[in-house]
Structures are given as structure tokens and as C-alpha cells.
Amino acid sequence: MKTTPYLYLFTLLTMAACKKTPEGISPAYRELTEAVYASGNVYPRQEYTVTAEATGLIQQRLVNEGDSVRPRQLLFVLESTTESARQQAAAAVLRQSQANLNANSPVLAELDAQVRNARTRLSNDSLNYARFRELYAQNATSRAELERAELAYTLARNTLRAQQNTLQRSRNQLRVEVANNRSQLVTSEVAGQNTRVRSFVDGKVYEVYKDPGELVRPGDALALVGSGRRLYAQLAVDESDFGRVRVGQSVTLKADAYPDKTFNARITKTYPKLNRTDQSFRVDAEFVGNNPDAYYGLTVEANIIIRQRPRVLTIPKAYVVGMDSVWVEQNGQKQKIRFQKGTENFDLVEVRGGLTEQTKVVVSDE
């Protein structure tokens, strides 16, 4: 994209001079304001893509392109048998895990019985070990018999401890399973609620991508929504001019959709990343005063005001032929000549050489 610094004139005289007249015109000195040219598009603030968060068929589409919407307004209704089935399955799994945690559950009852059996065996082996110690003290049994009784007591004690740990670990694991299954149920319930898609902003529907009867999955785009009142211009400024642009500078914009209107804006943000495709930088401008209608992507041309120039020789842009030529009248004859062109704006071209205030520029015969 090739752009040059532009000039913008703020007088009614300039507007009148921009019209072609059969009699022709002469270059004139005028007070101009130097500006940087930019082009871009108009977009809404708070723009976002409405996406599906559940799998299902679109049962209802409650908005169309151009409709105004409010926050929390219902946009789409999905019919999802899958989410209902998942919710029922999650509820069944939660009930089963809660039953397993119950004191009378088969899982815990079996472990509890093993603990009781281990405790009984420990009691018996403890008594037996005590009896063999008394017998050994009375030299009524051998050392080997005492050690066997001691080993049996030790094993019984360790077995009880292990069974108790297993029972406690199982209870803890079942509690975790209950918590996880409850979370899964809540998630499935939320997913079921996601079959009702609502707006997040007070704005306007710019595009609808899906119709009733279509199958959608999580992440599928349903519509494009954005603010219907807060608009901004996203402009592209040539890298050779970007260094002259500052936040707060005034901007004048024109759009083909409004041939007789000019809009005012102000630079609110500049982006430091170069777009290598067209060698431009992005600049955002907020409208000041009147906004254009909320047409998404409306094409605009802009002049970013840099400084005023009190005396510049100019001709109307409409008289320029090609890049740098005009038709002039000399001695009653028309001829095409080239001139040294400077910067230009929507309506005027700066004359740096080749034409004077006495030159009569006429309408092209081409």
C-alpha cells in the first residue's frame, strides 16, 4: 500500500473549487492543514462471536441480521439429547458412589469385616503369646515355641494395622469419587443450560451463521454481535508516515456510503506491530460527534491532522489527469502538461511546480 501525506482544507471556498467548471480554474493559495492519509474500516466496540457451548440441533433462532439485542437476551435454543443423557448418566454415577460410601455398602462392609477378623486374631495371638511367656519363665516350653508365638502376635498386629489402613484409604477414595462425580453432574447440568445461548452485550446482530435444524458442536460460531452505538475506525497507516501519528490527533473521515458527509474522530491507540503484507501499521480512532450508521466493515478514507500550513498553492483534485498531468488553456488552445505534484487530500492537490496562479486549468477532453 503506497500512501503519502495528505492535505485537508477547512474552508467552504475549497469545496466550491473542487467542482469542475467548463470555464476552468487557476491555482490558488489557500490555508491548508497537513495530514497523513489512511484507509480502513468501521467496526463496533465489544465485538464478539457468539459460539455454541453444547452439542445439539438448533431448535430456535430468535434473532436476524440487523436486530438490536440486550444483555442476557436469548439468541438461540438448542435441542440436545446428548447433554440430557450425559446428565442422567452423571446423576446415576453419583448415586452409586454415594451408596458405596455408605457404612452398609458391600465394599466397606467387607473391609470392615476384615478389620474385625484381624482384631479378633490379634486378641487371640496376644493371649497365646502371653501364655507362652509364662510357660517359658517356668521352663515349661522351649525358646522356639515362644518365638513362634511372638511372631504370630506380631503378624496379627501388623495385619490389623494394614486392614485398618485399607479401610480408611478406601473411605477416602470413595469420598473423592463422590466429590468428582458431583462435579461431573454439575458440569453436565451447566452444559444442559448452555443449550440456551444468550447475548453478553447491548448491541446489534451483524451476521448469523446458523439456521434452525443445523447441528452444532461446542465452539461452532453462531452469530457476530457488537455494540450498535460505540463504533471506531480501524485504520492502516503507511510505515513511512506512522512516525508522525500520535494519540489524540484529530481525524477527518469520508466513506463512499456517505458521499456528502465528513466525519470527525480522534486517534485513541496506535499499534507497534508492522503488517508486512501491506507495510502498514494499525491505528484506531474513536468518532467524535456524529457516527456513521452501524454498518460492519464500512470502508473509509481518513486524513490524520498533523499540522496547519497557512499558504499552499493548490488545484482541485478533479482536474488532475492520471498521476501528475492537467489540461491547460494557452492562446485559446488546450494542451496537456505535467506539473510537480505535492501532497493531496480528498479534494485538493498541492502544486510544487509547473503551474502558476496565472495558469488556466480546464476540463479534460479525455
UniProtKB/TrEMBL annotation:
Annotated GO CC locations: efflux pump complex
Keywords assigned: Coiled coil
Native source organism of the sequence: Fibrella rubiginis
Protein name, UniProt field: Efflux RND transporter periplasmic adaptor subunit
InterPro entries registered for this protein in UniProt: Beta-barrel_RND_2
One GO molecular-function entry: efflux transmembrane transporter activity
Domain of life according to the entry: Bacteria
Coiled coil (residue ranges): 146-177
CusB-like beta-barrel domain ranges (all copies): 234-287
Top-level taxonomy: Bacteria, Pseudomonadati, Bacteroidota, Cytophagia, Cytophagales
Gene3D superfamilies attached to this UniProt entry: 2.40.30.170, 2.40.50.100, Helix hairpin bin
Keyword Coiled coil set for record: yes
